[in-house]
Amino acid sequence: MPALILVVDDDDPVRVMLARLLKTQGYSVLQSADAAQARTVLESQRADLVISDVVMPGESGIELRRAIAQRWPELPVVLMSGYSADGPAEFAARTPATFFVQKPFAAEELLAIVERALGPVARAREA
User: Fold this and answer.
1) Which long-range contacts (CB under 8 A, 24 or more apart) does 63-67 make?
2) Cα 77 to Cα 42: distance, rounded to the nearest angstrom
3) What local confidence, expressed as pLDDT, does residue 57 receive?
4) What is the pLDDT of residues 23-77, one digit of tens each?
5) List of residues 6+ apart from 115 with CB closer than 8 A
């Protein structure tokens, strides 16, 4: 069974491109345009990984990560940002199961981070 990844980004073309990229790698993908919608999706479908933009209208990706950590502490999250990486990268470094990628990124870079974030999930599915 392929890992289920939730992609959260208010920029529709970016979100759709990421979903397509992940699907070509065999992942199942859900999409949300903002953090509130992402939480609703997570309540109904258990994702194995969340990939979220940091800067979004309303709740930020970092605020979403904090909410996920409270409700589903083991759920890994990849944060991505095209703005200053210092704050989000530092937050990711000190938050368990949290990874950071700076936009723009190469597809291979994101896929490597996804594999690393899913490591425990992927191993459990193989067992």
Assistant:
1) 63/35, 64/8, 64/35, 64/38, 64/39, 65/91, 65/95, 65/98, 67/35, 67/39
2) 13
3) 92
4) 999 999 999 999 999 999 999 998 999 999 999 999 999 999 999 999 999 999 9
5) 122
Structurally, how many domains does the chain consist of?
Answer: 1
What the block records as the tokens of 122 is 């992927």
Q: How many C-beta neighbours within 10 Å does residue 117 have?
A: 23
* CA 111 – CA 67 distance, rounded (Å): 24
Please say whether the beta carbons of 30 and 5 come within 8 A.
yes
In the chain, count H helices and then E strands: 5, 5
69: domain CATH number?
3.40.50.2300
- Domain housing 74: 4-126
| pLDDT reading at 19 higher than 80 | yes
Mean per-residue pLDDT, 5-19: 97
